[in-house]
Amino acid sequence: MGSEEAVLFETDNAEGRVLYRLFAVSIFVGICLVWAYRVNNVPGSEEVAGRWIWFGMLGAELWFGFYWFITQALQWNRVYRRTFKDRLSLGYENSLPNIDIFVCTADPTVEPPLMVINTVLSVMAYEYPTEKLSVYLSDDAGSDLTFYALIEASDFAKLWIPYCKNYKVEPRSPKVYFRSASAPTSPSHAQDFSSIKKMYEDMERRIESAVNLGRIPEEISAKHRGFSQWDSYFAKQDHGSIVQILIDGRDIDAKDVEGCPMPTLVYLAREKRPNYFHNFKAGVMNALIRVSSKISNGPIILNVDCDMFSNNSYALRDAVCFFMDEKKGHEIAFVQFPQNFENVTKNDMYSASLRLITEVEFHGLDGYGGPLYIGTGCFHRRETLCGKKFTEYKDEPKRVNKLLRDESKHDLEERLKTLASVTYEENTQWGNEMGLKYGSPVEDVITGLAIQCRGWKSIYFNPTRKAFLGIVPTTLVDTLVQHKRWSEGDFQIFLSKYCPLWFGHGKISLGLQLGYCCYCFWPVNSLPVIYYSMIPSLCLLKGISLFPQISSPWFLSFAYVIFASCAQSFVEFIFSGGTVLGWWNDQRIWLYKRISSYLFAFIDTILKLLGLFKLEFIISSKVSDEDVSKRYEKEIMEFGATSPMFTVLSTLALLNLFCFVGLVKKLVLDTSSLVVFETLVLQILMCGVLVLINLPLYQGLFLRSDKGKMPGPVAAKSVTFAFLICILFTLLY
Ligand SMILES: O=c1ccn([C@@H]2O[C@H](COP(=O)(O)OP(=O)(O)O[C@H]3O[C@H](CO)[C@@H](O)[C@H](O)[C@H]3O)[C@@H](O)[C@H]2O)c(=O)[nH]1
Ligand SMILES: [Mn+2]
């Protein structure tokens, strides 16, 4: 084969890089001028309070400037990848690697079995030789309902896979397909369509009725020997390992309705005992790595969360293009696809699509050695997950691991159970040098970092047809809690021995180290943002000016930095497919995350360092009741929970409202005070923007009567706090 054909992927630099860099330099100059102004205009020593406020502003601005600087690592060197799947099929169709797909679920109430099996069916139906695919469902709840749904799915797959392949169906999650597919045009397809749709709906009904019943009806459990495993089951957190090979790809009888081989399908519930810590998803992944190594041992592992169905049946081939590329493939440890979502509304009220991260920042990281591993939609080389260093791998002769299995399925299942037992990992390197790392709520990020520090590269691939679609939380509190977990995890990495700066020093590029820091520092951002959104507004009450007056040339530097960075985020947002209102919502959530999720993450991390708190993992809900869904569809913000995070948000919003009203009152009563305008313009503007951005919150506090409004106690508390802070400030200053 010519060298041209051997190239399976290409990398392009972002357009307009030079222009962007010039623009960034201009902002940097602006930031330096802001600092210079702050340092040169410290109030005299007679104004003690004024000085401290000023130093606070200086501190915040130093941080903002510094943080802006490191975020350039996410912008400076953006790259985009392209794959050549046709070359892959031409040159390598017979040597495509086996792929093991891990799907994780943990709770049948927040992750309904029906959703889980739709994801499973979508990944069983990839455009890839089926005999090379093995799908493993890990069920951390060990729920017989999920198991039952999987049995149903294993039968339905025999029809579904050939149907998808015959009619080139997309997406291959049956639920989403039947919901969105346009009516088939050819009569034969129409017939197949309606018959398979009926089969699906029947299956759906059976599963739903078991779920509604809350247990498996006897006539069903008698039919499948697998249910006997639940005889010794006590509770979610107290049961032995359950391993069931539902479809064994090697079994000559495992054929679909057209006689083609089926992918292997395995159910796993690892052992859980109350006095053993189970390490959340990292523990699951490690059990899966071990169990799969004895069944299919695919050299490539794809892992997805149970809500992340496959939306692009060629994505496996895309990923394989990277690993099999003759020149650069051998140094790639993992290929990360973005997390995209199915249920985001038009203006994305909770900024849940993570638009700038997926469309801009990860391309930036990719330019410096590769993106973070973000837990789902990621393809790993099995060996790198198991701790292999790049240098060891490079020098080693490549051999194909052929698994020889002659024991019976039953014996194998029994042997596999010990691999998923609570004691298996005692005195081993699992969770440390092997597998995913333990001890972090973001097992993915820390594991990815460790892999990159062993000399490997990673790839970010963001195809136009999205590869995976998941579910975003549909309430404000869920969104904030999820961000708390992420930011807390990243911050803990920074404070641990895996700090990207020290641990990564000399192992990954400086750009990548700084890139990691951008995420690790999320919680730290909370402090300056809270300061900046409180103090200047409070100062309005006393007419204290904190910014240069409009006629001063220093004013320009502030105005430029603020305006230019807003404009940049606006342009990036719109170019990444967002709407104008979506951008405005994104700004609101930007603020809310900083003053609540990140603040609580910061505090909890400190408490955890002091040993006052232990690790937890709150699973994001993938279902919401009808009432909540309706409001979500209409883009009405959902409060409706008494969370301390809401008290902080409301207090800050009200505080700004009081300050703004106080100012207006002063201007109306005393027109001579209009001169203050000259000196307070920026402060008034900031306070005004804060009031505007909080409009939905004021509505939630005072104007709404539905169930999603802000609960009364939160409203009462925050009015009191905001009022007290304003009074205290005016009295004490
Ligand atoms: O003890 C646990 C906890 C979670 N999960 C599974 O882990 C996945 C992620 O949980 P989810 O609540 O959906 O968290 P997200 O915040 O949406 O997840 C993102 O962030 C996590 C780290 O915080 C990563 O593990 C995920 O892969 C990544 O998608 C789900 O499939 C769960 O079923 C388990 O299997 N066992
Ligand atoms: Mn999730």
Automatic annotation (TrEMBL):
It is a multi-pass membrane protein. GO terms for biological process: cell wall organization; cellulose biosynthetic process. The keyword Hydrolase does not apply. Its main location: Golgi. It comes from the Eukaryota. InterPro entries: Cellulose_synth (IPR005150), Nucleotide-diphossugar_trans (IPR029044). Keywords: Cell wall biogenesis/degradation, Glycosyltransferase, Golgi apparatus, Membrane, Transferase, Transmembrane, Transmembrane helix. Mn(2+) binds at K281, D305. The chain crosses the membrane at residues 18-37, 49-70, 554-575, 595-615, 636-663, 675-693, 714-732. GO terms for cellular component: Golgi membrane. GO terms for molecular function: cellulose synthase (UDP-forming) activity. It is found in: Golgi apparatus membrane. The active site is at D140, D444. UDP-alpha-D-glucose binds at E111, D140. Pfam families: Cellulose_synt. PANTHER family: X-BOX TRANSCRIPTION FACTOR-RELATED (PTHR13301). Thought to be a Golgi-localized beta-glycan synthase that polymerize the backbones of noncellulosic polysaccharides (hemicelluloses) of plant cell wall. Belongs to the glycosyltransferase 2 family. Plant cellulose synthase-like E subfamily. This is Cellulose synthase.
